[in-house]
Amino acid sequence: MTSLTTAGTFPLGHRSVNRLGYGAMQLAGPGVFGPPRDRDAALAVLRQAVASGVNHIDTSDFYGPHVTNQIIREALHPYPDDLVIVTKVGAVRGADASWNPAMAPAELTRAVHDNLRNLGLDVLDVVNLRIMGQVHGPSEGSIEAPLTVLAELQRQGLIRHLGLSNATSAQLKQGRGIAEIVCVQNNYNLVHRDDDALIDELTGLGIAYVPFFPLGGFTPLQSTALSDVATSLGATPMQVALAWLLHRAPNILLIPGTSSPDHLRENLGAGQLALPGAALARLNAIGKAGHLG
Ligand SMILES: NC(=O)c1ccc[n+]([C@@H]2O[C@H](COP(=O)([O-])OP(=O)(O)OC[C@H]3O[C@@H](n4cnc5c(N)ncnc54)[C@H](OP(=O)(O)O)[C@@H]3O)[C@@H](O)[C@H]2O)c1
Asked: Is 195 within a domain?
């Protein structure tokens, strides 16, 4: 049994995917802008992920922009039958690498076609509406107009399944009245736990929750308690952070991002890590304390 199968599976749209997946954002250049420093290395990481059993890759055409999707296509097309590629729309990049809302009907439609073209697909498996009310965290506000545009593109056969990103519970409720929502992708990790109630709600609904920044994102997690637990288990802090998320709820699907083959191997190894009760108690206290203790 491999590390991935040990971690189990959860439904994502009409497929069941391994709970340990891969986030492709780190494959673009610095600041998720422009080409990577080493394109061959980026291709190799993607091929290694799939060869290791990853069948869930998260991306967007606004990574690069276009660059990450083009690298995914070059590395993996024609895609394995069981691979689910999840993308997101709702933003565009400025020439200065800024992240700007792009939720108007024409912008969303263009983004879907950009994803199809750059990934080399006729239909996108899952498209998340990346809600841009506040760029860095969820904020209330109607999503009816943009989600209706995506639901129409789904009806036209360009999208199989829809999800939400950077969403609140109220937006999830509104969204489910417009279309079936198969996943929610929000910022959540061992330290940043604003979504605890939303995760419990999604567990009850049987909808996948996909934390972005599972390792802390641009500032990888650092915590004495996390390091202590990792040392006691003979694991690395990042493996413990991922194992904690796997333990947190059965509907959590992981998409840790890396541009490094060694980090990829390490992250996928988290599936085999069991967390004893004392370790869990220490890790749970990190978020409750609200600091990196
Ligand atoms: N919906 C959204 O708004 C949104 C926002 C952000 C991200 N995402 C998605 O979520 C995915 C995951 O987020 P993320 O990539 O930003 O952050 P992340 O997975 O929390 O962390 C990635 C960072 O951790 C480093 N790292 C990875 N594995 C490591 C290891 N074993 N040891 C030490 N450092 C390690 C990476 O550097 P190396 O490359 O050196 O390994 C990178 O700097 C993204 O790839 C993207 O697909 C979505």
From this structure: yes
